[in-house]
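Molecular record:
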Amino acid sequence: MERITPESYASTYKQMAIAARIADALEAKGWSKSEFAARMNQQPSIVTRWLSGTHNFTIDTLSAIEETLGVQLLITAPTH
């Protein structure tokens, strides 16, 4: 633990939190990983990576996950 920098810890924490929010949303909807993968047009192995808490998400992927699950994972942009 001494070798982990505060930045690395914060990044890992955020990745794990996002994975947990996705898992919670799937459970709330009663969707399996396979069903979610199909709705996202992805392979189930990709969803497994997302749920591992170690995947480095792009903003586009997170936005698509939000839209599909109806949850907020990112800060909402202000409207003009």
User: Anything to note?
Assistant: Residues 32-70 form one domain. The chain has a mean pLDDT of 91. Residues 3 and 9 are 10 Å apart (CA to CA). Residues 6-29 form the longest helix (24 residues).
